[in-house]
Amino acid sequence: VAVAANPNAVRETMDRMLNKLCNAGLDMETPICVRLCEQEINPEALSSVIKELRKATEALKAAENMTS
Amino acid sequence: MARHGPPWSRVDAQQERDVRELVRGVAGLQDEADPNFQLALNFAWSNFRFHRFLDVNSHKIEKTIEGKAASWKRLTEEFLNAPLPSIKEIKNWSEESEEENDQQPLSREDSGIQVDRTPLEEQDQNRKLDPCISWKADEPDDRSWLEHHVVHQYWTARPSQFPHSLHLHSNLAAVWDQHLYSSDPLYVPDDRVLVTETQVIRETLWLLSGVKKLFIFQLIDGKVTVRNNIIVTHLTHSCLRSVLEQIAAYGQVVFRLQEFIDEVMGHSSESMLPGSGSVPKKSTEAPFRTYQAFMWALYKYFISFKEELAEIEKCIINNDTTITLAIVVDKLAPRLSQLKVLHKVFSTGVAEVPPDTRNVVRASHLLNTLYKAILEYDNVGEASEQTVSLLFSLWVETVRPYLQTVDEWIVHGHLWDGAREFIIQRNKNVPVNHRDFWYATYTLYSVSEKTENEEKMSDNASASSGSDQGPSSRQHTMVSFLKPVLKQIIMAGKSMQLLKNLQCAESTTCQAGARDAERKSLYTLFLESVQSRLRHGEDSTPQVLTEQQATKENLMKMQSIAESHLELDDVHDPLLAINFARMYLEQSDFHEKFAGGDVCVDRSSESVTCQTFELTLRSCLYPHIDKQYLDCCGNLMQTLKKDYRLVEYLQAMRNFFLMEGGDTMYDFYTSIFDKIREKETWQNVSFLNVQLQEAVGQRYPEDSSRLSISFENVDTAKKKLPVHILDGLTLSYKVPWPVDIVISLECQKIYNQVFLLLLQIKWAKYSLDVLLFGELVSTAEKPRLKEGLIHEQDTVAQFGPQKEPVRQQIHRMFLLRVKLMHFVNSLHNYIMTRILHSTGLEFQHQVEEAKDLDQLIKIHYRYLSTIHDRCLLREKVSFVKEAIMKVLNLALMFADGWQAGLGTWRMESIEKMESDFKNCHMFLVTILNKAVCRGSFPHLESLALSLMAGMEQS
Fold first, then answer.
1. Per its UniProt entry, which superkingdom is the organism in (chain A) (predicted)?
2. What is the C-alpha separation between B283 and B281, in angstroms, rounded?
């Protein structure tokens, strides 16, 4: 069910929620995240995925730096 | 819960793309063939599809909130106060058949909020759940779940069972009802709706926050009323009602103020009919800044008020301590009294103003009201400290646009006043170069307390007043707090504008731009002075310094933010951005400094010196204005004197009109007098001009182009007298702008009058001077001795006794001539030295001391009127002047006759002349002596003395 009444307010609220509650430090990926949220993906799931991916990426990079 | 499986669609393809992009972006893995990429992608999808996030971790959320408490709270409040988005959401929570019932006022807060969770959580839940989850499938379960967990919907009109509290001693209502039932046979218990005290408290809090759709308090026709059939179990109906009505009054105040705020912000109010067709007038008119500033101050007050209310509500929800309505009202008591004060000020200052009043009057009335209120409460003393602080913060905020307008005007010479609310208005029709610029550019708008006359500035130099009276029942003065410095403001503003124009004409480079960024505005200076004044014991100076640094950094930050905002509207203007940034900064600083009770008026130290608030204010604001006034007017004077050679022009006027340039003018007028003596036509304008140019060109070459002389035939009745032949001569000197503000055409007229008088005196003197004794004798001799030069002594010898009468005649003429000469010379000396020279010295001295242009104009005018008076040109003393003219005339006729020769004379005419002269002389001496003895014209003493010396001893 689409919330038709106040899409702007919804988006704004979600933006704030995403940025503040999730604390995931989103910058570049924000538009993508917004799109995904609109497509009915749970924002908390999204934020935890992003966090995990970042952790993993950093671990990978650290590993690569050590080996090279 | 995640979606139940709809088929793979285009949307999902989009999703797939987005998720891949996300992985690429976050993990930095660009290559899709990379096993890491696939791992990451699978991880993401598994989380999205199969997570379970229904249970929110409440601790986590609380932490986040505490970290960003204030703004979050405000957001929450805004959110909470937002009207219902749509009917659709309500549908989700009720059966479809009952949708009509739910048109009942339903506030958002109640629907979502619950007892055992924080309201914010619930908001999140709702928001998150709405887009993701469709309720329709699960409705009946949801409804019962909601009914269990959500507050009982006391607003839906279900006829209730008889209210009965579980608590043993809280059944007063039931007891009372029982009593009424038993005592009054006709008593019928009404249908009442039972509410709990908590609900009452919460509705009170919502009412005071400005929520309109409530159950217990209803807004009918703009008036807050208490619903009639409410009951709590522990109070009787009427008791509850009376308590609630008191609260309703405060709610009314809140609504009224809120309405004002909305109105000024431009929101359409509920009362406006949709089809009214009236475009909100704010869109085309310039914003009325004073009202906006006042609204802003109120708005900030309400924000802090709402924060307090939200705090209380949170306490209630937490249910940690007992909270009753009485406790809440008590806690809010200071706020409520502040509301009363605000309402009083508001209704006097804004609400009671007739709708057609001009913005000028409105603004000044509002400021005056606030100011008076402050003074009133200030006089009460320590008891109303809080009120004074509140009113003071309101006033300081409201006066900001006014001071900014003043500041802009007196520093830059621009009067920007879109809504025409400043008491001084610019006359657009008068450009700067216009002759009347100095007088007509600005109109002082003021409505005085006197019955009919408008209050005009005392001299004509500052402004021409063009105003009409206010409504007769209410007379205002202009903005009272600016009154003492109004003159300086006007002078500074006009001088600044003139200065800007002069500087533009000279095309000086404006380093003003760079200086301006560091310059503190009048408002900032004022605030700083007030701060340092009112915070006696505190160390405020280091605060100011660091503030300045912080201000600069913030300025940079804010500027970039402001610029990005502006770019949204396609405006690329860095200067505008800087100004916006400064504006925001000042406001935020101000908010921190002056919210409500932050300003502690330290009365103890002030009471020692018995200084009132008024004096404090004056010492904080007026010195800055004065300083700017002195600066800018001094600057203007310097410019005029140095760059525009004002003093030199004044001297030039005196040289030519007042004959201080003696030799030059001598050359000029003698050429005219010679022509008159030779009875040739001299009234030729070109001849006059040529003579003038020749005379002036020798010593004052640059002035010769500016001087010109003209002649017009005045009424010929007077012309019979020889002394009036010169009437009609007009000397004019072309003075360039801006010096002609000082040396105006009216001034030149006066100069010309004095010039004419001087010319007449000089003519008489000249005529008498050029007479040669020998001439007279020779003409007497002409019929007898025609050959050779006749020497005086020979003449006497040659005349025998039979020439006695002729000799006597000649002697008497000599005597008369000498007497006349003495008279004319005394008069001439008197005027040239005693009047013109000494007055001129005084004038010069005053010009050096003049502080502003108005003063200079006044000095100049006073100088001219002094000369005019002392040259006896005033109407009142015209008889004296007539007498003098008579004597001059006599002298001229005498000179004529002398030249015509003795033959034309008869004894009688000589005697007549003598007696005429004697009479005039006597008359003048008597008059002058009288005046001198009376002490009314001390400067005439020397004239009186010298004339007296010439009198015969009779």
1. Eukaryota
2. 5
